[in-house]
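Let us work through a complete example step by step.
Step 1: write down the sequence.
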Amino acid sequence: MMGYYILIGAIALVSWLVSSKLKSKFKHYSKVHLSNGMSGAEIAEKMLADHGIRDVKVVSTAGMLTDHYNPQNKTVNLSEGVYNQRNASAAAVAAHECGHAVQHAQAYEWLTLRSKLVPIVSITSSMSMWVVFGGLMLGAAAGVGIGYWVAVAGLIMMGMATLFSFITLPVEYDASNRALAWLKAKNVVTPQEYKGSEDALKWAARTYLVAAIGSLATLVYWGMQVLGGRD
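Step 2: predict the structure and record it as tokens.
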């Protein structure tokens, strides 16, 4: 178990460092005020309109960096620090979330696949570790009996969460690329403001990358514990 604790500690540390850097970048670029004077909400509404999307609402949500697109009720939810603010960070985040709305409208294949996995992962992700532990306690380390197969079932559940985290990567990167392309094409931001928006989105994407790598590392570790004990 010591190896597992070290792995979890390392993943948590890297995740914290990237998250802290993202917050620092967001705060820094929040000081780069947009020359056009548009708020995050106004930018989101314009991007949706430019893509012919009329059935998605832009709403404010509480918290910091809680921005997200909800495909169920078709809403672009912008945090308080984005909805009313008029800076490079707000422009980047608002456009990024609208990028997801555009993906939804255009039936982007990776978003469609991710949406199909949501119901499954929402159940299996919280159970997988307990199932693996249960299997190991039943004797999975020896590779015999029902315990082994229980642990394997747990690994499959864990694998679904890992798959989900990697499918999330192209969804997030594509949304950022759509956002940046639109910001530049429509001259919504100046070159200096664009650089700030681009840098902020790069760090946001890295949080998903770290999460995916962490999920894979955890899966490999427990896979070795379960499957390795069978040899």
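Step 3: interpret the result. The CA atoms of residues 59 and 77 lie 5 Å apart.
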